[in-house]
Amino acid sequence: MLQKLNHVGPSLAVKFYEKWCLCSQGPFIEVFDYSNGSSINRCHIFHRNKVHGISIDKTSGNVLVYGSRSFSIVNINDLFSKSEVLDQEKMTGEWIMSGEFSFNKEEIYLLTSYNRVLIIDPDNFTVKSTHFVEGERSILYSGSIKVLRHKVLVNAGTIMNGIIVWELDSKKKIHTLRGHEGSIFYVTTSNNGKLLASCSDDRSIIIWDMVSGKLLSRAWGHTARIWNLKFFNDDTQLISVSEDCTCRVWNYKNDELTIKDIFESHLTKNVWGVDVEETNLIAISGGNDGRLKVTELVPHNRSCNIELSLESISEQCDGFIHKANEIVKGFHWFDFGLVLITSEGNILEYLQNIEEWKFLDYDDRFFSFSITQGNENTIFFMNNKCLLTSFKFDKFGSVLQKVDYELELLTKTVNCLSVRHTAHFYLIIESPNPRDPLLMLKFNHGSCAPTERYTFSKPENMISSCAEVHNNRLLVGARFSLAFIFDLASETKPPIVVKTQAADAITSINYLETTENDALFSMTNRDGTYFFVAVDFRSSVYKTIHANKISRGFLEGSFYDSNDDFFVYGFKSNLFHIYNESQQYEVFSQPCGGAHRQWKLFGSQEQQQVLCFVKNSTLNITKIPKGKYPGALKNGTHGREIRDISFRKRSNYCKENLLFITGSEDTTVKLSSINSETGAIQNFWTLKSHVSGLQRCKFICDNFFITCSAREELFLWELNDQFSHPYVNLKQKLIPSMNNPDLRIMDFDVLFLNGDTCDFIMATVYSDSSVKVWHYFNEQNSFTLIIDGRYETCCIWNVAFIPLQNCLKLLIAPTDGHLITWDITNSVPFEIRNNELFDRGLKLETKQLQNWSEKILVHTAGIKSLDVKLDKSSDSFKVYSGGDDNAVAITKFTNNDNYTMKAEILDHDSYAASSTVTSVNLLDNDTKLLATSVDQVIRIRDITNDKLKITESKYTTVADTGSSDIVTLPNVQKTLILIGGLGLSCWRDE
């Protein structure tokens, strides 16, 4: 029996209520405590229709929910406690655009797409009356109802006729507002009823005077269509959400609408709903990606409270006289404040508790050139003449000690890097002289003088950029994407050279964790790439186990937070930003100067992070806010349709969680895990190597999966799960057939060699009817083409290898409705014995695909999906197929003695669905067949007697249903099912 566990899909309506947030996803409303992000309950509201709108009567605690032609009045307590309230669903004859309670709460108003308002008795749900404007025939794209004390205003956003404002009781038209081009996508009234805001296909927002009907202000800013608007903050501000995935805040003052803030809130396409909690000034938005994003409109603890030039500092700081052209050369932030050095050698201190500047010292040895590093309450200044000066402070910022240290082993100094650890602090000092060693000084915390010194022979052309120390090893990141690992126990030992696949300097190295053999490090590169590298120090071997690239900008560092989300930070043009890479949203941004900027990020995410930078010769100090609220109540999935899903079948990431991948129209592949008990989904990585929408993604074994798409893109990925997080690395790409490929790889299948989990043959089929077979040799990490050919001229949707007793068959399913097989036994340089593939050691060469062997018409249109059951005892196989003709069929192929095959259709259901059957999966030891279709119905059929007998059907709330996969849960007689489309639905068959 199918049991629904979870649904993640587009969220069309969101609403705050006291300390909770009500969010729609499909026909459900999920209630969250927005203060901590916990889910209180999920309640099934409608049988099939999606929830489009929510209105709350705070006096009675009743909630009006509407969507499509359905509406329901539910008590708020039922939303908190019940799993479903389907018996309260009522239907109208017209599409509902908006709904509200009357002022006295004795009626409800439903605005329909025909610009009519149904007045409903909430006790018996009867239509008391229908109000409309006589002679008005407009069809609505949007609309809203504004209930005031003495009147009710109806704002009708039409498809072609602007905005019609009319009064409900008198049924009189008040205004016809024309100023937009195209359909009106949303229209809303201010809280006091004096203003009206609208948006349309022209991407503009207009503010109207509700008394005169005059256009007061028009503003542009969104780069795509705007879907929702809301006034807040005493009608002085407006929030808008858009197809461009941003949430924008506007100020309205003196009849002028101006942009205030832009928040990148969602993925790929479309933000549908928004609401604002005005007490704490936080917004909740719901998008196509299923994410429920919390945005703090006034971030807590954010204070760019210092923005001073040296000239203005000199006016506050006794003893410091600013000279012409004097600039800030370096700085470090401590708990007590900031210490900086200027190009003239002036050393200044800012005490944040008393907000005062102090002059500490003047040292002309640091004229023009200096490098600044710090640790706890000690700061270090280094010039280019091998002088290192340190100041030690107490917790109030008073100087306790000053020490000069001559770097006599070096002839000149050009760079100084720092590494902080629990027990020690390190400075790594580099000379431009290639004959000078690389010097490392070790300090105890709070000490001004080094306790140990290490020297290493500097590799040729090494220009250092970052460093890390772990397990008696020094790791130095450098330009040209190189990292060097030095052994502190053997200073003469040559370093391990780590080469990463990037184009610029490595900007950060961080130690993460250690398994039995390997230590794991994260690295970022200035070109926007980040890596995870596992190093076995005993054998001096390293391996890149994860590589990915951000969408745009440069990377300067990364970290994991306490929730195990991975963050990266860097620059997009002149904007510094911190980005949650695991969940794919920005958490902080700050304009920060151009390419030659001076900046440093201090502190940790768990405590207080402080960004210091110099912009236009002005020192800026920004304390990065720690969010008071969770960044998202629900993280969602892709922003576009999910084209394919694949479970990792055998090994689990952890006890209850199963790993799976999804490939989407948005060109990304996500690696996630799902809890088999609750259906809760956790996203780990969003892989961005593809440049076109995904077609297929499939785990081919525990460690490998393959993805394919248009432009002949096919990527082999390697999964590593030996650490506390799973990691994925792009292992190899299939070489396209031309320089500018335009073909789509529609499907692939693999067959591993006997006893091998790495070497395999792979069949690929293409949109131009091409068929190719490849050999993958893991040791050389290479694909070799061994069979090349073509079927006819139609697109091929599916392919499968069929290893029989002594022969190998290739099966395809094209758009002409046939199932076609080839005998490729003599075309591959391998031997087939007992249904398995054996290497004969023959030379690999490309052969042409021979004529097909068997061909049978099964469907009257294209075969969209298939699954195969191999019967070794009878040397036969059965194909379970679903097609574009809405049919499901069982076809049997039996091997004859003369190496031909007999093909017969065992059963065929021409009316298996009311629309295209998009995926089929065998389950329950091949005794049942799961089929999904575009009509959003999941059907399970009994196939034990080679007959298609429906045993169960369920409606799924995932639109554009297109993919599915199953996995048998270990130790229990249950199957976990994932259904993908415009969203993701999780079911369990028990």
UniProtKB/TrEMBL annotation:
SMART domains: WD40. It is found in: Cytoplasm. The keyword Repeat applies. It holds the Pfam family WD40. GO terms for biological process: tRNA methylation. Keywords: Cytoplasm, Repeat, tRNA processing, WD repeat. One of its GO terms (cellular component) is cytoplasm. SUPFAM superfamilies: DPP6 N-terminal domain-like (SSF82171), WD40 repeat-like (SSF50978). Its main location: cytoplasm. The keyword Thylakoid does not apply. InterPro entries: tRNA_Anticodon_Mtase-Reg, WD40/YVTN_repeat-like_dom_sf, WD40_repeat_CS, WD40_repeat_dom_sf, WD40_rpt. WD repeats lie at residues 177-218, 219-260. PANTHER family: WD REPEAT PROTEIN, WD REPEAT-CONTAINING PROTEIN 6. Belongs to the WD repeat WDR6 family. This is KLLA0E18899p. It comes from Kluyveromyces lactis (strain ATCC 8585 / CBS 2359 / DSM 70799 / NBRC 1267 / NRRL Y-1140 / WM37).
